[in-house]
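hey
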């Protein structure tokens, strides 16, 4: 009787925990960008945030969605990718508007110029959307042609999670160039670290494809490296390295 009563209690508890973990996976990835978004909107300054982070996450999540068509994984991971893509587009829209409004150079750049010197540094949000749609169309067509190849599908899955694992690298390099983490939201990086740690544990316990677990660990190491930069540049300030400014560029934006 006691065992039956205990089982009656544990089953819904287990279900509740599963739903909570799935919800955290779906929405937890976008939470770190909320304080960064609010900071940029409040200060009208996007200098501390690298939009290449948006590029990395857009590529990674588009590839992950395509990987799902070849090897079905858990639905929360699929929805996480969809929500992350929407979030990154919103971040790009805000950063582009802020950068253009603060930019003295009146020369406008567009995706249609096909100028690699200004790649991912266009003047209108619509150009970023065109680039994302072009990438999605090309990779989607290639995936459709090779969907029956298990080697291609597994490689696609590895590229998706490995690209996401490189998420913090643009910010890591930007901080190194500036010899400072000023303008970067430390809350965002702390949330990155806690979220990536949770995500990696989730991958391992739910037996996600092995690519997810390996690259999740790599992502945690990159997050820790950025936190070490915060400590290093806060307690041991260094003289910024001078760089030749690009005529229409605001650093890594």
């Amino acid at each position: 009787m006691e065992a039956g009563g205990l089982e009656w209690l544990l089953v819904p508890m287990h279900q509740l925990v599963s739903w909570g973990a799935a919800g955290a996976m779906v929405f937890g990835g976008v939470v770190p960008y909320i304080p960064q978004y609010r900071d940029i909107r409040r200060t009208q300054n996007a200098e501390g945030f690298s939009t290449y982070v948006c590029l990395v996450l857009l590529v990674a999540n588009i590839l992950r969605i395509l990987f799902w068509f070849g090897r079905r994984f858990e639905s929360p991971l699929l929805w996480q990718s969809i929500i992350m893509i929407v979030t990154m587009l919103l971040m790009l829209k805000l950063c582009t508007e802020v950068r253009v409004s603060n930019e003295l150079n009146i020369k406008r750049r567009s995706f249609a110029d096909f100028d690699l010197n200004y790649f991912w540094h266009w003047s209108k949000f619509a150009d970023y959307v065109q680039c994302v749609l072009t990438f999605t169309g090309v990779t989607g067509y290639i995936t459709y042609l090779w969907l029956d190849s298990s080697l291609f599908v597994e490689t696609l899955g590895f590229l998706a999670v490995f690209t996401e694992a490189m998420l913090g690298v643009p910010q890591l390099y930007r901080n190194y160039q500036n010899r400072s983490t000023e303008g970067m939201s430390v809350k965002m990086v702390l949330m990155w670290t806690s979220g990536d740690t949770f995500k990696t544990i989730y991958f391992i316990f739910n037996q996600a494809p092995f690519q997810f677990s390996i690259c999740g660990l790599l992502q945690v190491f990159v997050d820790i490296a950025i936190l070490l930069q915060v400590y290093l540049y806060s307690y041991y300030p260094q003289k910024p390295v001078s760089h030749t400014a690009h005529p229409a560029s605001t650093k890594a934006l």
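The two ends are 64 Å apart (CA to CA). Confidence is low (pLDDT under 50) at residues 241-253.
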